[in-house]
Amino acid sequence: MPSLGNTSIPDADRCPALGRYIAAGCLVVERGDSGLPDDVWARIEGGQWYDLEPGCRPWHLPEPSPSQALDAIGEPPPAEPLSRVLNHRFFGVPGSLSFAGGLLRCGWVRLSVALASDRPDRLVVRVYILPDDVDNAIVPRSDANLKKARAALLARLDFSPDVWAGLTTRDRRDAPRLLDDSEDSARARGARPSLLEMFNSIPSPAPITSDIDDYDAQEAADNLLNSRVAGLDTALYLHQRRSAALMVHWESQKRLMLDPRLSKVADPRGQPWYYDAIAGTCLREPRFYDGPCGGILAEDMGSGKTLICLSLILATRHIPASAPDHLRDGSGVVVRPRVGSLADMAAAYITRNSVPWRNVFGDLAPYGVEYPRCVAAIRRNPASYTIPIPPRPRSTRRLGPSPTPRTVYLSHASLVVVPSNLVQQWKHEIAKHTSGLAVLSIDKDLTVPPLERLLEHDVVLFSFSAFEKLAGSGRPHRLRPREAGPLWDSPLDKIRFKRCIVDEGHKLGSSMSGLARLPQVLSCIHAAAKWIVTGTPSKGLFGVEIDSEARDGSAAQQTAASPHAIELDDLKRVGSLVSSSYLRIRPWDCTGSGPRDSGASWHSYVERPWTTAPRPRPDGGADAPKEPSGAVERRLWTTLRSVIIRHRLSDVSNLLPVVDRRVVYLDGSFQDRLALNLFSMMIIFNAVQSQRTDQDYFFHPRQRSALSQLVSNLRQASFFGGAFFSPNEIRKAVKTAEEFLEEGKIPISTEDEALLRDAIALGRLAETNALKRCVNVFHEIPLYVEDFPWHAGREWSLDFAEGDPVCTDSRLISALQKLLRPLVDAPTSLQLLFQSGRFQACGLEERAKGIRDNKAAVAAATARLAESQSKTLAGNTGFGEDSNSAKHRSSVLSGKQEDTRPSAESLGRLPETDIAAPLAQAKLVSTASAKLSYLIDQIMQHQEEEQIIVFYDNDNVAYYLAGVLEILQVEHLIYAKGLSLERRNQYVVTFNTNPKFRVLLMDITLAAFGIDIQSASRIYFIHPVLNPQVEAQAIGRARRISSNTKDSRPVTVETLVLRGSVDEVVVRRRREITQAEARKCRGLLDDKPINNWIRNVRNLPLPGLKLLSASAEDAVGTEQPPPTGSGGGGPPSAPASAGRTADDVPPSPAQTAPLARPQFLFGRGFGRRPVHPDEDLAVVDHRSLPAEKKPNAKESGARGAAVAEITDRSRRKRSPGDPELVPASASATPASASASFGVGSGAGLWLGSWSGQATATPSSSSSRIPSPPDATGAPPPVPLGSGAGTEIEAGPARKKPRVRFAELGGGEDASGP
């Protein structure tokens, strides 16, 4: 039998109607299933195709004439044509192809039948499908039943070319073959990559400016590529130029994008067609959409996304927005009430057609030549368009107010919406990198200026919170199409902005972001281009070098494909961004982008096909039509490429500072191990006595809250945990355990008995430890000081003991420094102070004050613990509580403590030889915390040359560290949760601009996206971070591309790990954990290996403690890496077999961790007068603060009284969010701080000049009223308001541009050079 594929007659020649159809695939019909009689089957000839005709009825023999009847006598009657017989048999009621009969009759398909070449007992049915873009005028395509029938037919087809040729024994192909030779399709045809790999494989921008048709936009892109942007004071890196130029291209040039739902496939003959298996759509020609005017700028963190946006704004600020195409008036006829002047007519033409004019004869004209009359004519004829009245739905019966046409005015301005904590950073970047921009900032105050004033600005800067409030305070409005009417009454609704930029816009894709109103308000903004700026569109999408092998292997592990549940979460977030009513990316826009386009379902086309689960047919039957292999990958890849602009990490990694990561393993001091063992003791007591099953077991689901608190305290104990578990708590738990063993009512294993007896021995040792009892009384880290003044430290000590060194704490030393500061270089006065007994009396008073302040809190905490724990937890065990820490740290973490820092002029001016002899040799030699001792050594070693960030995850840790830094005169800031947003912003700006501050303590949970702390080059993590992405975000605060390559220095990152603690397990798990596991873990307890380690924790060996069970090192089950760096070494731990007794317990000084280099307490930079805590912070303009938060005269002016009073930190109770800021002194800011500037939210900065830089010039007036002109007649520096409704407006970028600053809502204008 000849092959069917070798027929020499083309389908179109054999049947001309088939030329309009797509050769889709074949159906194979067995002889037994065909329903054909043997005589009919015998009539089918091999190699012959029989076309089944649409609408063909059964054949009837016509009545012959008499002459014909006579001629036919003796001859057999004529046979019915075979094609008609087949048509009748196949499409009859029991026919094997009856499901396609309706399609054939209506002309949707054509069918041809022939015998298979390799199996004579089979029929091959070729199926030709009429494309949806052919003959729509004569063949209706709206029948839903026919669409379902076509989907069922497509699901049954075999798309193999072999079957089309009649070879039915070859492999079946359930979907057509992708036909695309591009890189995109080649990537899709390979093994399925992960979403993370796709994200990191997006090609780096390569803009071609000659492809831009608009001359002005092309010139702007060329200027960006050459870094010749007027008003940009910073040279752009190559990647920044390319990204900004591509953004101009996407904004100005329409891009035709192939509908991502369509797959370009090949029919069995190799001819192309376009297939959408989800909707069952077949097209002969491709369908295109306009590419998005905007997209997602997803450059990696630290690569300068803000600068890219600013350069884009500057390069195109002379180009106005244009009206939407469908609302543009093409007639060009302007109806005036009277005949206009020629100037007005020309101006109207210019504005109506969005002709750039500001760079010709406006304020951006070259050489400073202005044409005021032309400008006035243009401003009299602003460009606008009208949004018509939307048609009222015919089905509605509600008669509301009749809508009216709305007029929208075209603007040059860019609307920038940023998180509240980044408002000040944007202002700082604008002032640092640009000149001549007119900026309006609206943060807290909702006063929006009139329309006319808004049109005059280049940038309108909004915070998220202020922007959300534009929708009103009531229930969120229902989302409606843009043409349906405004959602709020605001001048913003009457402006078509040139572009809208949403910084950290990934929050729009999260339902948990708390920004319910923001997407709704953004959807109603008129903007010619819309951008989202974010380095991580979703949690699992971040920069990784795919093409290179990571040194530690972590990158390869992170790029491995994650489980579907995790990747689907990322897909949902990306989908919510591209399908949002803000970006309106077609065809994913869920609100409908056109009258005939209701939007495609991202879930149906991307999320669901990404899984391997079978999909039901649309009609509820068998499998739906299957997509070509790689179709979903190509669809996702095409969408990502069309909307995301980013460089591959390999293209920018050489510009980012090198990161030197180290893990520093420290041997804990005796007190460190004792604190960790107490937690082990409580866990063992509880586990054994509860039999690890009942509700009084720590790990029972109902004890989740208590267990979480215990784990949090256990983690803190790796820094310092001596304040946990009072002697009474220990004694009570030990007594209960002893009674449990004596009674013997519950049988326990030998191993549990050994654990219990070890824990009891530990409890007895801890109960009698003198140093721990001191900690429980004072709730401070013990510090040892050698050569105490006059060797009279008993009254200033914790243990009230004679001798040297003296055991004290940071609060007592701070009080001592305040007492001795005025006499630091006056030996006679010092001697009188000591001989009069005042020195000892003050020590006793401070010591008693510490005991008194803690006593009440300890009693309350003990009662609270006894009530909440003993009734629910077995063994009278507790989870520990640092009972008085909240009171102690309130003033420290809120930035309101009385300061002991030296004044600016006294730093470095007081040599140690001028210090009186009794004070000169007093030095700090050790602390009870190994991590604290190591941090002090490192900070004191590197602070002169580098600025340092210390990340913590517990407020107690920050409090303890800040106390020691304070007594060592280390200038530091604490970026804590309890601070107001204004205060946090002020700290970041101050740390970046004032080199006096050397250390920033930052809560790891606040290391948010977008915060720029590039001045730091050394980072310490007090505790290891389990989630690698969280750690990367924290490091990214400092690892950023600098505008000056000379300022770029390597970033050193050290993670501190205490041996034998949970830190070791976290570090090990961080090397092993996958991205999916990290995403699931909200805490350490969510990670099974860490949970098991805590559940089976063991005691650490201690001198004086004989262990009967395995040691904790054995329980950890990891290798013990050698120590890295120096410091932190306590006494060597004794093995469990040593069998030491209580007499072997080392003395108290040996129970601490010595410093590698002792630090003098009265030497380095110790000044003679205290200053206000807000010395050298970025100055705040109080006019921008709410009235109830403005400091009064007593707070801002009574500096002397505040200095004279000696107040303990624990006595200062102030609101953590109270922005009590006072003027800085004239010598506060060094000259080097003029390189850049920044202010906190709600703050103002005093500008001395406008040249792309600014100096923080102080004022002595709390009201911030400008001073009178100086002797030269020059006006005083002007405050750059940065709070709510701050307006920053500048003239053209010339040598001496005029700068005007005004406060909305009552502020006065002031002019300065």
TrEMBL record:
Residues 935-1098 form the Helicase C-terminal domain. Residues 1266-1279 have a biased composition (Pro residues). It comes from the Eukaryota. Residues 1223-1238, 1246-1265 have a biased composition (Low complexity). Residues 616-630, 1182-1197 have a biased composition (Basic and acidic residues). Residues 1304-1313 have a biased composition (Gly residues). Residues 609-630, 872-908, 1113-1155, 1182-1313 are annotated as: Disordered. InterPro entries: Helicase_ATP-bd (IPR014001), Helicase_C-like (IPR001650), P-loop_NTPase (IPR027417), SNF2/RAD54-like_C (IPR049730), SNF2_N (IPR000330), SNF2_RAD54_helicase_TF (IPR050628). Keywords: ATP-binding, Hydrolase, Nucleotide-binding. This is Helicase C-terminal domain-containing protein. It comes from Remersonia thermophila.
